[in-house]
Amino acid sequence: MAKPAVLVVDDEPDLCELLSITLQRMDLSPRTANNIGDAQRLLKTEQFNLCLTDMQLPDGDGLELVEWIQQYSPSVPVAVITAHGNMEIAVRALKLGAFDFVSKPLDLAGLRKLVATAIKLSGTIDSDTSVFGPRLLGTSSAMQQMRDMIARVARSQAPVHISGESGTGKELVAKLIHESGPRRDGPFVPVNCGAIPTELMESELFGHKRGSFTGAVSDKKGLIQSAEGGTLFLDEIADLPLHMQVKLLRVIQEKAVRPVGEQLEVGVDVRVLSATHKDLSQLVAEGKFREDLFYRVNVIELRVPALRERPEDVPELAEAILRRLGRRMKLTPPMLAKDALAALETYAFPGNVRELENILERAITLSTSGEVRAGDIQLRTTPGGPPATANSSNAGPLGDHLEDIERDAILKALEQTRHNKTAAAKLLGMSFRALRYRIKKLGIE
Fold first, then answer.
1. Does pTM surpass 0.70?
2. CB 260 within 8 A of CB 203
3. Domain containing 275: what range?
């Protein structure tokens, strides 16, 4: 088999020679180009598994080449070589689609890790869609866009911030990014930043040396180092105290950690994914989240849609959840009656998919037959109010009752906005597409 080929684009002969020797020792085949024009000609005529480009080139800068590769050779990962400390350029390169970056003076150990990770991308990611099988359910356009976005960001090493309401499945999306990318064989380490006591947070994340504080009876590796070669997922990153935000910023910029009580930093090779249900930009404006860290973790933003924005996915999700619950409870998976499905399809789900699962688990417990009916499910009619069931004092099936409530609310919003559907959707707190779906379903037009 032919050796994987790497294109090195730099006009410094000494650096080209250093990189070529390093790549040859990794059993790779290096090719060099001194400028953007030569690099483009080689990329058009030969197959490469990776491109390493300097930022300062005789006929332009490396960002131009990054953009060109995204358009004409998108299957080739490209990493940029930046001046030490120039994170603004590195972030711009990542936003344009660069796989990763490496700073001068070159750390050859870190460079070898970057190259090895990039080579794993060749010919494996595009064809591997099995990871999206039964785990990311839904055929709505919102979910199709989500799958496409996951496939794209999986090819990069850029930090990704996953936003979305509680219960939408942000950790599942993070796992899919990890499993769809070249780090799939490495660990996936989830950390709930809001669940670690403040006084233990530095030790938990960065580790500590024996004797560094009372109770430190042995060396301990932190959660960041535990993710070496894989992915670190920082859930609820908005809950990080400000002093820890400073330390995390250094980890992302320098790719190194310093355990408590240690004098020297230790290099780490991790990809950072983060998530929160809070508005980070608002927290920045309020001074509760560092602006510089916000721009580092939010290089790519991926928003997970709320369940009410994709109501057409509810039947498929409900079926899958019932099958899973049936297996777990060692029961024949119950069927979902039409009146129960109608109630679920018209419910706004403040708790999203997690709430749907809780509703169905409770319904299986209450059901006295092999079918989940409207009377078996309990839905909140108002935030914090009592649950609604088909056995409520209001006459009529639950599905009909909820449809009447929803129809009245939509008609009132349309009247208030003089039938401007965009404004009505905003007033109701839902997307335009979700409103249009409900108008059609309820036969309002």
1. yes
2. yes
3. 137-305
